[in-house]
Structures are given as C-alpha cells and as structure tokens.
Amino acid sequence: MPIRATRLIRKMRGGAQAHLIQAEDGEFYVVKFTNNPQHRRILINEWLACAFLRYLQIFVPDTTLIELTPEFIEDSPDLYLSIGTRREPVPSGIHFGSRLAVHPDRVAVFDFLPDKLLGKLENRVDFLGMLVFDKWVGNADSRQAVFFRARAKHWTPLKGETPPRIGFFAQMIDHGFAFNGPHWEFQESPLQGLYFRTSVYDQVRSVDSFQPWLDMVEHFPVEVIDSAWKEIPRRWLDGDEDALQQMLETLLKRRTRVPALLGELQRKRATAFANWR
Ligand SMILES: Nc1ncnc2c1ncn2[C@@H]1O[C@H](COP(=O)(O)OP(=O)(O)OP(=O)(O)O)[C@@H](O)[C@H]1O
Ligand SMILES: [Mg+2]
Predict the structure, then answer these.
(1) Ligand 1 atom 4 nearest Cα
(2) Which residue from 228, 41, 39, 30 is spatially nearest to 144, judged by alpha carbons?
(3) Which of 37, 99, 91, 87 is nearest to 233 (CA)?
(4) By CB distance 3.0 to 4.6 Å, which of 59, 81, 167, 223 could disulfide with 122?
C-alpha cells in the first residue's frame, strides 16, 4: 500500500535528484521519482535490490511506495528536477521511498566516516555480504552507505553477537545502478562494487571469508525474486515487462559466478584485501 507524502523537506545530493519528504506515517523518506534524470528503471532496481538484500540479512533501508497527490505537488513549489536550465515538474502518482532509520533533526546521518570509526562499526561484516551482492547484480556504481549512531534493531545471528550498546551502523543505500542501471545487463568490470575505504575488507583472508553470503546467493530462492517483482507498480514498468523478465533470468544463471568475480577483483586490485593470502 502506498503512503502519501505530506511535507517536502529538501533536495538531496546525487544524480537522481532525490528529495527528502515526510509522509503521512510521520516517517522521513528519500524519494526517487519516476522521471528522475537517471532513468525510470532506477526505481525498479532500488526496489528489487533492497528486497534481495533483506533476504541476505544486510542492513538496508525499509522501502515504501510513496504517493504524491496533485495537491501535494501544488503545495510544494520547491519540488522539481533541474534538467540543464529547465525545471521539470514531478508527476503525481507512485514513486520510490527509502526510509530514514533515524529522525533527521535528532540524529546525524553521515555519508562518510573516518577510518578510525569505520573500524568500530557494529555491522562491518555487512560490507563483505554487500560486495558479494554487488558482484552478483553487476552494480556499475561504487558502493555507497550512510552511517549513524543507533541501537541494534534488525540484528541477526549471522552478524555475530548482538551489540549491547549504542554504536555506529552502516546502512547500504543507492542501488540504482544494480543490473547496470537503465541497461539491465551485466558488465563485469573487476573493480565495480568496491567500497572506496578498503579497510572494511580487512578481515578477508580468502574467497571463503565471503561465506555465508556466497552460499546464500548461490541458492538464492526464486520465490524471493518473484515476490519482490510482484510488488513493482505497473506504472514503473511501462512496457518493460519482457526486458525485466529476461534480466532476472540472467541474474538467476549468474548465482554461481560470484567467487570467480571476487578472485578477479583480488588479482586486479590486491591492495583492496590487505590480508588475503
Ligand atoms: N535511506 C536513507 N537514509 C538516509 N540517507 C539517505 C537514504 N537514502 C539516501 N540518502 C541520502 O541521499 C543521498 C542521495 O541518495 P542516493 O545516493 O541513493 O542518490 P543518487 O542520486 O542515486 O546518487 P548518485 O549520484 O550517487 O547515483 C545520499 O547521498 C544519502 O545522503
Ligand atoms: Mg548515490
């Protein structure tokens, strides 16, 4: 069920020109629009990637369909996309919302953390699972995350013992360029998906350090893909049904490719994994 937008807060940085919006449930969402300058398919990529990542127990934002009513658009003169010198209006209807895990006025959300704090991240292992995922889906962008202080909420045993205290968490965001963004194909460039601060990979000793995610991807259930696919608003697809189906079939076939892709990355950029022997 879509949730209605109630208040425009501000525009965010980034090529998709997402906006921070409060919705009728009182929560805050970074919303990407169907007519964003990257491509309409970006919304589908975000939706699918977040659903798959939840199955892999990697910390990602909750995702929601956000409805912009004609009244909301009329009451929000600052809501538009900048295309060159032109102001492009955002259409009413259903858009993609990525929910902030914390209240933006009360808790600082950082795009980057210094290495010292990265070393103390409670869910640092998520970066290993994330690299497995990014290789699998051929993420053409480098890895992006946001960081904030919180108490462990969605902890799973896979990450180790539940941290008892408040600490820094990384939440994985921006999956618009999974499946090579608008192209829905898999280009295998060795460095893609890598996080620029490679200290997050310090615990990697060999390709086996990427378990259990390698196994989970290799046996990734078709049902998880199907149910995420069914939730995609038909308006986002707009004639892309066959192309999407084909892309997802290729994705299933690629489930066993990841160890080879990680090996290739290690050969090309050995410094990424300081402790790989
Ligand atoms: N769920 C979220 N919680 C907190 N902040 C978020 C969330 N999603 C996005 N952001 C913030 O919004 C910014 C833009 O989001 P995102 O990187 O997904 O957009 P983009 O336009 O695709 O960026 P790029 O130009 O890197 O492709 C991020 O840099 C981040 O600061
Ligand atoms: Mg981004």
Answers:
(1) 100
(2) 30
(3) 91
(4) 167
* Res. 188: pLDDT tops 70: yes
Residues in contact with 252: Cβ distance below 8 Å, sequence separation at least 6, in sequence order = 220, 222, 225
User: Using an 8 Å Cβ cutoff, are 246 and 192 in contact?
Assistant: no
- Pocket flag, ligand 1, residue 144 (CB < 6 Å): yes
Q: How far is CA 257 from the centre of its chain?
A: 21
213 phi/psi in degrees, rounded to 5? -70, -35
CB count within 10 Å of CB 171 equals 21
Residue in 68, 65, 23 with CA at minimum distance from that of residue 47: 65
d(CA 115, ligand 1 centre) in Å: 21
Give mean pLDDT, residues 42-55: 98
**CA-36 nearest atom, ligand 1:** 21
Give the DSSP letter of residue 130: H
Do the strands 3-11 and 63-68 form a parallel or antiparallel pair, or are they unpaired? parallel
The predicted model scores a pTM of 0.96
Angle subtended at Cα 132 by Cα 265 and Cα 158, rounded to the nearest 5 degrees: 135
The CA 45 to ligand 1 mean position distance, Å, reads: 14
* Helix/strand number for the chain, H first, E second: 9, 9
pLDDT of residue 154: 65
With a 6 A CB cut-off, is 108 part of the ligand 1 pocket?
Answer: no
146-173 mean pLDDT: 83
